[in-house]
Specification:
two-stranded antiparallel ribbon; single chain; four-stranded antiparallel sheet; 219 residues; alpha+beta
Length: 219
């Protein structure tokens, strides 16, 4: 798979991700919900930290939320640079199509959430009890302190768990509780492809190289 095709995949995912976030941010107030189906809701929330809404300051004592947020954003930027290098290197080494597509999905998802973290604080007003304004004179926060926009919620099942289940028996439970976005889906899909198709992703090119070398020796 060529680098141009990988970049096309990245651009498509980024456009879908950012257009959906822009729409939600400029049409919904925070925590506004639309029930599309019983099992699928559009629910506007903002993630100020890592996955599932956790924060770096939850694990490191003595660090403020703002410092933790800045550190997390910088880490994301460094990580996406590394993923970009991995993608280019995989294309140069003629890696498998599965590997290149998976890396492109992970890269686009990571970059999509970085855009929120870096820029949304200065290009939007906050969404508390109001619909945000795009490109205000003063945004809701400074650069690198934006919050990630999430909106996809799949409460597939709700109910009280049977009492025989250890630890959680008798508790009210929702599956699937987390709210996420298109960028998160891209990252999860890319990682899932690498796990499920591990052998094809990482060994296909090695097998082709060995086969070519063997053929040359036999000639």
């Amino acid at each position: 798979m060529s680098l141009k095709k990988a970049i096309l995949v990245i651009i498509i995912i980024l456009l879908i991700d950012q257009i959906s976030k822009f729409y939600i941010k400029t049409q919904f107030s925070l925590h506004h919900r639309i029930e599309v189906f019983d099992w699928f809701h559009i629910l506007f929330v903002e993630n100020d930290g890592m996955a599932w809404g956790t924060k770096l300051s939850d694990f490191i004592t003595g660090i403020s939320d703002r410092t933790a947020k800045l550190a997390l954003t910088i880490f994301r930027i460094v990580a996406v640079i590394g993923i970009g290098y991995w993608l280019v290197n995989a294309v140069k080494k003629k890696g498998s199509k599965i590997l290149i597509v998976a890396i492109a999905l992970i890269f686009s998802g990571a970059l999509g959430n970085i855009i929120d973290s870096v820029f949304y604080g200065i290009i939007f007003t906050d969404s508390y009890s109001q619909v945000a304004t795009f490109l205000p004179e003063i945004g809701y926060d400074t650069v690198f302190h934006g919050r990630v926009v999430d909106m996809l919620h799949f409460p597939i099942w709700k109910g009280v768990l049977p009492s025989w289940i250890p630890f959680f028996g008798g508790d009210y439970f929702t599956f699937f509780e987390p709210v996420f976005n298109v960028a998160d889906m891209a990252i999860s899909t890319g990682i899932g492809m690498l796990i499920v198709f591990n052998k094809k992703a990482f060994h296909e090119h090695e097998e082709e190289t060995i086969a070519q070398a063997t053929t040359k020796e036999n000639e």
